[in-house]
Amino acid sequence: MSGEHADVDRWPDVARLPSAAPARTALARMLVNRALNRLDLTARTGRAHPNTAGPRLTLHDPDAFHRRIGRDGLIGFGESYMAGEWDSEDLAGVLTVLARHVDELVPAVLRRLRGLWVSARPTTDRNTRDGARSNIRRHYDLSNDLFAAFLDPTLTYSSAVFTAFPARPESLEAAQHRKIDRLLDLARVGAGTRLLEIGTGWGELALRAAARGARVTTLTLSAEQAALARERIAAAGLAERVDVQLRDYRDIEGRYDAVISVEMIEAVGAAYWPAYFNALRRALAPGGRIALQAITMGHRQMLHTAATHTFISKYVFPGGLIPSREAITEHSTAAGLRTVADDGFADHYAETLRLWRERFTANRPTVTGLGFDPVFHRMWEFYLAYSEAGFRSHYLDVRQLLLTEGTPR
Prior knowledge:
Number of domains: 2
Mean pLDDT: 91
Number of helices: 17
CATH topology of the largest domain: Rossmann fold
Strand content: 15-25%
Number of strands: 10
Shape: globular
Distance between the termini: 58 Å
CATH architecture of the largest domain: 3-Layer(aba) Sandwich
């Protein structure tokens, strides 16, 4: 396929090859060739590059590829993949090499001028109450069946924790249950615990907490997720112990012995992190514990990403931003919370994403049957491989944190 075969209404920036100033296209070509010459990548473009090792990138339409990058940078790089203008038999491998050297791809003098050529994030993606609902619908309400096509039977859409790394053979389902149980243990959830979960997903954590005897209130903005979570909870005979609410975290009612939020802070947006941590603090009963699982990135990278419209913010998680550990500390401390445990496991997320990507690829006919076209397939494959590369290169991390009331000592 190529860009001209994309649905122009659904994928306007993939279907139409952008106009780009010749100078920007030439600059993109120079930067791409510079990267290929220096990095552990092999390119097949009709002429040989010095490197012959490493993952191979095949350019089907070099002119379109360079024009898109010249016009839109890394968004153009992703859109060129969506358009079928380049491929790789090891997409995650190519992206991992690039992620490991992301700060070297553009010369320092050009990095200082990045404000002249990157796009700002759309103000329409801000996570106001209405904006947050819209942003959640654009991802999580795509189709429950879509997510079932690549997640494990628990329908858990966050990093698993494997027994050891490199992982010994075990099911992703078992590794997801291990992750959930670690969070429940961290928050000391047991019989009689009043638990608040912010970010229901499809209900697996609420199910396991209720099975321990906890009484669970779980919040989501996704109508699709809420409906299926309620079905799963009822089928398990735990409906009396779990209350699934379509509610914004800013509208929490009551106080709880434990609060758990798994990879939800990334959807909040930097402008609303103070509101998020203040909501956590208000919900906490005296002596209570907050267990968070959060994706993180370096602080400088976070500041750059916050000011930039990215492929992920355009196509996957509108309004989202991955925080740094420094940002979490700053905003949680300001809300009157202190961190008493902080554990990272990036390699486990890379493995989780690899398994999701393989399952998504294997279930391509199912995804097509749900009405998703070839451009969506390539977009989702790129998203999963792009994310895997972030964790495999350690550009990204994922952490489990325990917060309690009080200031750091």
